[in-house]
Design a protein that fits this description.
There is one protein chain. This protein starts with 5 loop residues before the first helix and ends in a 7-residue tail after the last helix. The protein contains 8 helices and no strands. The chain is globular, with a radius of gyration of 18 Å. By secondary structure, the protein is an all-alpha fold. It comes from Penicillium canescens. GO terms for molecular function: ATP binding; protein kinase activity. InterPro entries: Kinase-like_dom_sf, Prot_kinase_dom.
């Protein structure tokens, strides 16, 4: 994707489906409402490749694992963000809870979705987080993988052109980006050459 222009990126993803905004009572929208809503996907901070900050300050559900564990930050936080964004774009819901989320809850949800296990260098921090955790086994959601989550996210849609194979392949493409270890995440070039993106 590093070689793609903005137009090429949009052409590759396809045009978005836009849902019209309507009032429940059937009356006109009024002067302050538009006929459709544009959703902003920007959830991070821009920095130069050679001048990465020591910390990123983004909303908790949008943080890459290395930000949560206060590890080295570089351009690969964007690869995690791309995986999150693709999940959100194609399923219509974020991969991680956004309401009243805590560090332990988010890390546990990341463990359910990530394609690898939590690196050993973060275990002590994780143990400290778990000590402060107020979540109980009864309140935890069911474990899931990117593929399962994509299928569950699509259950609310009645799109006839979405096959189980398509959803499985989408989950695999997203899974290449959702690795705890930043060095294991697929590069933008690898992702753009994934057969799923070239259909």
């Amino acid at each position: 994707m590093t070689e793609l222009s903005e137009k090429g990126f949009i052409d590759m993803l396809g045009t978005p489906e836009i849902g019209n905004v309507r009032r429940r009572d059937g009356k006109a929208l009024g002067p302050t409402l538009t006929e459709y809503i544009v959703r902003s996907l920007h959830t991070g901070r821009i920095f130069l490749y050679a001048a990465a900050p020591k910390k990123l300050h983004t909303p908790l559900p949008h943080r890459a694992p290395e930000v949560i564990f206060q590890d080295h930050v570089d351009y690969r936080v964007d690869l995690w963000s791309m995986g999150r964004m693709l999940f959100d774009l194609f399923t219509g819901q974020p991969p991680f809870d956004t309401f009243m989320i805590t560090h332990p809850v988010l890390v546990r949800q990341m463990q359910e979705m990530a394609s690898d296990i939590l690196p050993a260098r973060w275990h002590n921090s994780w143990d400290t987080m778990k000590e402060k955790d107020s979540e109980t086994p009864e309140t935890r959601r069911s474990p899931r993988t990117p593929g399962m989550a994509c299928r569950n996210g699509w259950k609310k849609y009645t799109l006839t052109n979405v096959t189980p194979e398509y959803i499985t392949r989408l989950g695999q493409a997203i899974g290449k980006l959702l690795y705890f270890a930043p060095c294991a995440r697929a590069s933008t070039t690898e992702v753009s050459h994934d057969p799923w993106f070239n259909e």
